[in-house]
Design brief:
It is a single chain. The protein is of the alpha+beta class. The chain has a single domain, classed as Phosphorylase Kinase, domain 1 (2-Layer Sandwich), CATH 3.30.200.20. A 6-stranded antiparallel β-sheet has the order 1-2-3-4-6-5, with helices on one face. β3 and β4 form a beta hairpin.
Length: 94
C-alpha cells in the first residue's frame, strides 16, 4: 500500500464513480466530486489519506457505518462505501 492516496481526475472507482475534481481536504481525508458512470448523479467521494494506519481505517469505516444509519434533512446521506487498491472511500450525496 502507498502511504498517501492521491486520486486523479478521470479515474474510475469500482467501475462506477468517475472522479472529476478535488472539492476539499482535511487532516485525515480528501473529498472529490465524482459522477456515477451509469446514472449520471454527482456525488462526493471521501478518501482516507493514510489507509495503512489500521486505527484510522477502522474509525473511517465506522464513521461511514454510523453516518449511513442517520436519516435527516440536515445530514449528508452516505450512499456507498468501498475499497480500491487498498484505499477505502465513502460516497456521499453532493
Amino acid at each position: 500500500m502507498s502511504n498517501r492516496f492521491q486520486p486523479r481526475a478521470g479515474r474510475v472507482l469500482d467501475g462506477r464513480y468517475v472522479l472529476e475534481s478535488a472539492i476539499g481536504e482535511g487532516g485525515h481525508a480528501l473529498v472529490w466530486r465524482a459522477r456515477h458512470q451509469r446514472l449520471g448523479h454527482a456525488v462526493a467521494v471521501k478518501f482516507l489519506r493514510e489507509p495503512d494506519d489500521a486505527d484510522r481505517r477502522a474509525r473511517f469505516l465506522r464513521e461511514a457505518q454510523v453516518a449511513a444509519a442517520i436519516r435527516h434533512r440536515n445530514v449528508v446521506e452516505i450512499l456507498d462505501v468501498g475499497e480500491e487498491d487498498d484505499h477505502v472511500y465513502m460516497v456521499m450525496e453532493l
